[in-house]
Input
Amino acid sequence: MRAGGGNDIQWCFSQVKGAVDDDVAEADIISTVEFNHSGELLATGDKGGRVVIFQQEQENKIQSHSRGEYNVYSTFQSHEPEFDYLKSLEIEEKINKIRWLPQKNAAQFLLSTNDKTIKLWKISERDKRPEGYNLKEEDGRYRDPTTVTTLRVPVFRPMDLMVEASPRRIFANAHTYHINSISINSDYETYLSADDLRINLWHLEITDRSFNIVDIKPANMEELTEVITAAEFHPNSCNTFVYSSSKGTIRLCDMRASALCDRHSKLFEEPEDPSNRSFFSEIISSISDVKFSHSGRYMMTRDYLSVKIWDLNMENRPVETYQVHEYLRSKLCSLYENDCIFDKFECCWNGSDSVVMTGSYNNFFRMFDRNTKRDITLEASRENNKPRTVLKPRKVCASGKRKKDEISVDSLDFNKKILHTAWHPKENIIAVATTNNLYIFQDKVN
Amino acid sequence: VAGGPECDVCYWLVEDTQEKEGILPERAEEAKLKAKYPSLGQKPGGSDFLMKRLQKGQKYFDSGDYNMAKAKMKNKQLPSAGPDKSLVTGDHIPTPQDLPQRKSSLVTSKLAGGQVE
Output
């Protein structure tokens, strides 16, 4: 792991994928981004139900000033739009989450989910094909057996690499509400899926059964006060998982305690000063993402205006809080009117858990170095797309006189949101998704 | 839940937006919102946001409603869909022609096709 924190790193543009034109087709809106466990593969999902997987090229030994580029490896239609006639419910094909399984053999496996159905996909390579059949021509037509006078043994011959994706399992009909999270257990045998009110536990081999482990649906729906917003398994303890709520709380549950984990083992909540409460308090406290650190000692939550780091041993307040875009606090009225206040930003850790990253508006994204306490704002824009040019830090001017190179809050484009970012598990390579483009940035290699 | 019995009454007073000193920016924003939408937050029962969130995707009518309305209006013309096709039930009776085609994307993602830098 290269030394240095978020600000000692000089981030450079590496690649951008996607259409150049501003007219964005709905299907092209990127809805999830995820590196696999080695970082060699990078998957994206979009609103059109498609998955695109990029593979990092082997490092070019001659051109050692840059790491391998990410090029398209495989692409497939994961989910299709559906209609539930019984409930008059339209089921979007949008991919909400992708999670990779650790690699066990030559093939790669990932889970992808839309609002209702989770699918296990196998991505495998084929670089040879059988030739020399006795009863079939090379083009597949059957030969007349009476014309066969000699026998030969078919052999495998090399062919151009073909990458095939096939659905191996379909986990359906277990969620009444909309799935927001999937998380693979450290036992690599089970995984959880969470919707607004329930969390289910699945076995990767079994599609016709799943166990409900959390159910927060009230007997009377009028008493509903909070929903589940995200859930994740602990990276090391296979019995532990957390789920976050729209009220800004995180509950840690231990599956050894009982079959139904409605009673939490730990409740993480920062006390609020009642005199600070406003109409917006609950909305902006809603947690949009929760992620364990790689070490498993900490977890990070993202709410509308901040990122918080929690020590699992301390429930009553986070150990660190980072303001993402505090200047928006005086814009909450208009952000409520244009629905931006409900945007769900994700967050991620770097491989050594020393830096965290999250997105913002105007195609800005933010990094916070936990050691140096410094932060930086960068922009994903095609204007900066000369490879190996160091990105210039951005600054938003909250009020008063705007300095040169600063951008005022009122000039921010709230349609340009970075909701999804991912950090390579080992290297300083990040993937940042704007509405319909995927940017890859790397640290400057000398 | 905002607006419920546990909130202080003073939250809902419309403050003079010029007197911003000492007032949290959040409260000033709340006052702005309240001035625009006076009825906001006063509905009893569960949170509106949550219910809306849970019902996402529910677009179409109950076929029972549809048939009953059709029977009632046997001799009249069905009202055609207005510009807002996302209206749920009520006076708007969607016809099969109004429903948008639900086709999956057959086109390859532009991330896989487009220019590589």
Notes: Chain B touches chain A through 47 residues (CB under 8 Å). The radius of gyration of chain B is 23 Å. Residues 8-41 of chain B form one domain.
